[in-house]
Design the sequence.
């Protein structure tokens, strides 16, 4: 026996379905819908406000307010009660609207006589499309049942809007997903690309938001939930063979799949007249709305689980799955909320660009995108709800901007930018086999950073002299369990084969901080970048480090080997790490394995403490590589992952350059080779300044080698050094303006 709330909304939905089924124009449909809702709910007013642009709502239909105000009355998000509902994504229910905080009277609507107000957001999967409002003269508070019924109706309206049921005159009623849109995000990987949208998780299209027969619908829902549970159990079985932490994560996931309250809420939605799909989306929308407001990372992750389960359930119900059969277009640009490194690698170099709604500069996806040299924009908020498969899309990884369905002028300007890029690339190719020799005769060694087998072809193509930094954690990040020694040995061996005698500097695992292994329990640390990471983990969890060192020794199989340890913060850490490697060499010898004749053991210098380390550190290290990314973040106390501060301090700031100079002096005094392998080594002006200060080796992304070499070959580094010194003496904060001025004069 359905309760009152269910039968009320079911009746309303029944009438709504008839109104929507009629073959009429979008405006007529909207008018009918408002009339019908007001009539069913016994209110004098029902109005529908839709977004005409991301900031502005427009009154699009009304029963009860002044009809002249339709398409005239507009409000910004957060403005008045309607704007408040839209801004917060939450209902407002009040018996006395004029007294409610934020109330703003719209005289042209004639709403002054209506005291009660109930407004609910029209949302689809967390995307705000508008606001549905009922108002009445009698000062009543609407009941929970009425609120629920209005939310159910709003859900159906959102689905119908998605299907284009309300397309009509004017911007607010224009077809969705047709207009140009621009997204300002963050830079994940530089580069520009033009192509067509390829959605990683295509939108599921719900064609029947209202159930034909709630009983049948309930059975569909329950059967699908059962199928979902079986599939999650299967996943759990697979993860049984994985490690303990991974199983724990999967168990939490299963707990959600079995959550009674989640299923009960969806059953109630179906009993109220929604189709099973619409019920799943209604709860998913609510979860996404909560997700955006929860500050706690753990809870956010749990809500993320729920979101994921909802997607799976929708895929089961609609049979659309994540593989909707959409062909990968030519020049595909992947658009996703987020993506794991493994999935990204599976797409590989076929992608022209990547746009993510989430992600971060140091996320695994960003690391892989960088390794594959695919332009990446992160934090493009709302792109997955706006973009459709096949849409034209322009990705500007230099600025962190994305243009979706661009108009002609934007597309043309972008085309020019791409052409300029291509021309520059061609110019760099001609330099490939030439040395990075400055006009003063100084030759700088340019090497490349790598981390995947996929990087190695760049060694030849870019003209790099070797691999100055091989980030070994990538191989750990893209797997779902710790790789075995033999597996690693074979991979490292292939890397050395591909390097064909060129030097490869393997950096031991730098995990922790932003690089959390999927199978390692995340440490709940207040400040992970300064926490238990890199060599700190290696020296305490010796098993993994030893296994990695053995794999490296076996991979070398007699060939020269270069190993460096990350994040050394005091001499003893380097001593201990170095000793581990020496011990492993002895052990390998003892076991009868061939060991390299020549093993170089280096240290990364990426904490300010090491600039002032005892002389013995510089003497003990066979080489030192400056990890500028970390060194800079700790030197300036500015998080490299934090968009707000990460670009605040200039690398060419006099203080930072003094530190670089000091490191060079200390290395020279000990006769220890020094290099720079942070991102700044790949920026031509920065690279030139480092070289002028005496850094003889720079290691960078392969794509940066051409531009850096091009500049180095044009300048006299002695003159550059004089410019830097004069600017430093002048009291300037950064030498950049003086260097730029000088460069303009030399060209
Ligand atoms: C650095 O810190 O500069 C560096 C090269 O290491 P990573 O970016 O991997 O921390
Ligand atoms: Mg580092």
Sequence:
């Amino acid at each position: 026996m359905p309760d009152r709330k269910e039968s009320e909304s079911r009746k309303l939905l029944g009438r709504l379905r008839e109104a929507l089924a009629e073959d009429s124009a979008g405006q007529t449909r909207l008018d009918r819908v408002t009339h019908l809702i007001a009539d069913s709910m016994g209110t004098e007013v029902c109005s529908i406000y839709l977004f005409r642009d991301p900031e502005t709502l427009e009154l699009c239909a009304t029963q009860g307010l002044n009809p002249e105000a339709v398409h005239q009355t507009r409000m910004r998000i957060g403005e008045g009660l309607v704007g408040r509902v839209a801004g917060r994504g939450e209902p407002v229910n009040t018996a006395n609207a004029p007294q409610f905080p934020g109330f703003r009277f719209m005289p042209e609507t004639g709403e002054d006589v209506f005291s009660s107000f109930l407004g609910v957001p029209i949302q689809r999967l967390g995307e705000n499309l508008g606001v549905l409002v009922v108002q009445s003269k009698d000062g009543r508070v609407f009941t929970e049942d009425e609120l629920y019924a209005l939310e159910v109706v709003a859900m159906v309206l959102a689905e119908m809007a998605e299907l284009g049921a309300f397309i009509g005159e004017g911007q607010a009623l224009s077809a969705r997903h047709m207009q140009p849109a621009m997204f300002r995000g963050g830079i994940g990987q530089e580069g520009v690309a033009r192509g067509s949208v390829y959605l990683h998780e295509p939108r599921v299209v719900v064609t029947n938001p209202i159930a034909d027969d709630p009983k049948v619908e309930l059975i569909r829902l329950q059967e699908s939930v059962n199928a979902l549970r079986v599939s999650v159990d299967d996943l759990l079985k697979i993860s049984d063979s994985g490690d303990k932490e991974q199983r724990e994560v999967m168990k939490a996931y299963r707990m959600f799949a079995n959550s009674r309250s989640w299923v009960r809420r969806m059953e109630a939605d179906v009993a109220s007249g929604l189709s099973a799909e619409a019920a799943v989306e209604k709860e998913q929308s609510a979860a996404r709305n909560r997700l955006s407001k929860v500050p706690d990372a753990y809870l956010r992750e749990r809500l993320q689980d729920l979101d994921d389960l909802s997607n799976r359930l929708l895929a089961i119900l609609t049979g659309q799955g994540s593989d909707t059969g959409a062909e990968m277009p030519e020049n595909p640009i992947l658009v996703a909320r987020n993506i794991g490194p493994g999935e990204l690698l599976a797409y590989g170099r076929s992608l022209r660009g990547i746009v993510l709604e989430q992600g971060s500069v140091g996320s695994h996806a960003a690391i892989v995108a960088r390794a594959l040299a695919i332009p990446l924009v992160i934090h493009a908020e709302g792109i997955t709800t706006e973009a459709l498969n096949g849409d034209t899309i322009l990705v500007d990884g230099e600025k962190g901007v994305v243009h979706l369905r661009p108009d002609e002028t934007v597309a043309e300007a972008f085309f020019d930018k791409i052409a300029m890029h291509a021309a520059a690339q061609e110019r760099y190719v001609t330099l490939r086999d030439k040395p990075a020799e400055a006009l003063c005769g100084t030759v700088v060694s340019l090497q490349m950073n790598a981390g995947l087998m996929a990087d190695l072809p760049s060694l030849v193509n870019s003209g790099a002299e070797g691999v100055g930094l091989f980030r070994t954690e990538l191989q750990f990040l893209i797997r779902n369990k710790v790789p075995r020694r033999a597996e690693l040995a074979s991979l490292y061996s292939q890397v050395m084969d591909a390097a064909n005698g060129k030097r490869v500097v393997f950096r031991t695992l730098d995990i922790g901080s932003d690089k959390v292994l999927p199978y390692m329990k995340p440490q709940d640390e207040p400040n992970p970048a300064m926490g238990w990471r890199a060599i700190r983990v290696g020296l305490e969890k010796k098993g993994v480090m030893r296994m990695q060192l053995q794999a490296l020794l076996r991979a070398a199989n007699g060939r020269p080997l270069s190993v460096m340890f990350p994040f050394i913060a005091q001499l003893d850490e380097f001593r201990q790490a170095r000793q581990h490697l020496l011990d492993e060499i002895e052990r390998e010898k003892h076991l009868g394995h061939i060991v390299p004749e020549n093993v170089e053991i280096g240290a990364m210098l990426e904490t300010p403490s090491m600039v002032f380390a005892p002389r013995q550190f510089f003497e003990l290290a066979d080489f030192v590589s400056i990890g500028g990314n970390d060194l800079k973040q700790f030197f300036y106390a500015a998080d490299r992952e934090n968009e707000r501060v990460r670009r605040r301090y200039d690398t060419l700031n006099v203080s930072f350059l003094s530190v670089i100079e000091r490191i060079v002096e200390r290395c020279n005094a000990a006769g220890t080779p020094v290099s720079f392998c942070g991102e700044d080594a790949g920026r031509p002006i920065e690279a030139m300044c480092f070289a002028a200060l005496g850094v003889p080796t720079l290691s960078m992304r392969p794509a940066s080698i051409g531009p850096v070499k091009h500049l180095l070959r044009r300048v006299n580094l002695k003159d550059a050094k004089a410019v830097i010194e004069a600017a430093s003496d002048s009291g300037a904060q950064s030498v950049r303006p003086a260097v730029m001025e000088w460069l303009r004069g030399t060209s």
